[in-house]
Please model this.
Amino acid sequence: MKIGIFAGGFKPFTTGHMSKLALALQENDRVVLYYGMASRTKGSGFHYTKEMSVKIFDIVKVALERTYGNKLIIQNPLPTPIVAVFSFIGAVKDGADTSKAPLSSFGIDPATVEKITVYGDAESLLPFTADVIGKVSRSGEDKEQKYYGNMAKTGGLVFDNALTPAGGPDRMVAAMTACGYADDASLLDKINVRGSQIRSIAQSCDEKEMAKFLPNFLNSKEVRDIIDIMQGHSRQGEVLESLIRSYICEVIR
Model:
């Protein structure tokens, strides 16, 4: 069995995220999506709260399960998506199903997993590659052997940055078109968009631009609900700023 893993914070889940998920769905028997819930402000002035993350996750989860069924396993990982990925790999390496979200709960027997592919971009894959492969801990312990055994060396574990020259954008374009996206001039923009861009668009209240970068597995109501959740937050910020401005003006007078 081939397993694809895609993990992140997804604030919100965009067409850029969808491009990697589409690739994972195309290339594997089952795919595990670890969807984090932490708040975030970094990357834009927009404060993406935990409450907002939970509300949007609930919408996205229903839509993904409706579209991809049992092939896709969606988890809110604790404590973080990164820890969950290491736990999954460790369970397959050791054949020991002892994590807080055991593989058996997904209907996966570690002994049947032939290959794990972890999808992401260069930044999101760093904790699994640059921080582990070929590294030695302060105690002199081989970190790669500890976390992966021989899986990475033998090809049983792959970290796939789909936009590297070896893969190139063609793989992403093919995966997205297979999921119903038009191969037009805007597709690469949809593939390369980042969450910080969407949060910035939410601040500008450009609903049409925002909708363009929300995935096509969402129906029109779900798109509307996500925009309302994010725009509502933005409008609350504007109201608060206006009240503060009025208060300062009164004090100055």
